[in-house]
Design goal:
The protein is α+β, with helices and mostly antiparallel strands and 155 residues long. It is built from 4 helices and 7 strands. Strands 1, 2, 3, 4, 5, 6 and 7 form a 7-stranded mixed sheet that branches. A hairpin with a 5-residue loop joins β2 and β3. The protein is globular.
Length: 155
């Protein structure tokens, strides 16, 4: 089997609290320390199942609403991590995932050391990877557009 990119998901997890959008950031311990989005992959599972599994396993949350974002995050693993594997990196489909604003985050400390809810500007400042910042911006555009549409329908 030739080297390839493993497919997976990245979740821009958000909640609507006091009419504001807050994004869930995770402080990852594995594969580089730093603030990141929810992400993961599992062989032979549909993307939505992977997303729900990662959400449950990593932070003990359930999706209220899921939207596919027309954006992907693709990156190569460092050479030392590629040795012995047939995987060169990951190609992640991005999803916006709304969760209940009252739900309690319970991080799996084997995956994530900490979590933080942040508005868009704060989240962009503290996310480690540029690709995660770009995914966050794309998701935020879609979420805000949808919220505006819903507000206009109610008026």
């Amino acid at each position: 089997m030739s080297p390839h990119f493993r497919e997976g998901i990245a979740g821009v997890v958000y909640r609507l609290k006091d009419s504001k959008i807050e994004y869930l950031l995770l402080y990852g311990l594995r594969h580089g320390r730093g603030w990141k989005l929810l992400k993961g992959s599992h062989r032979n599972m549909p993307e939505i199942e992977v997303l729900n599994k990662e959400l449950e396993d990593e932070v003990k949350l359930k999706a209220k609403k899921v939207q596919k974002i027309p954006f992907r995050i693709t990156y190569e693993f460092p050479k030392w991590r590629q040795r012995g594997y047939q995987v060169m990196g990951q190609d992640l489909q991005v999803y916006a995932v709304e969760v209940d604003p009252t739900a309690q985050v319970q991080p799996d400390f084997r995956e994530n050391f900490d979590y933080h809810w942040a508005g868009l500007n704060e989240a962009k400042k503290i996310l480690k990877l540029e690709s995660h910042k770009n995914a966050l911006e794309k998701a935020d555009e879609l979420i805000r557009k949808q919220l505006d549409t819903e507000r206009k329908v109610r008026e």
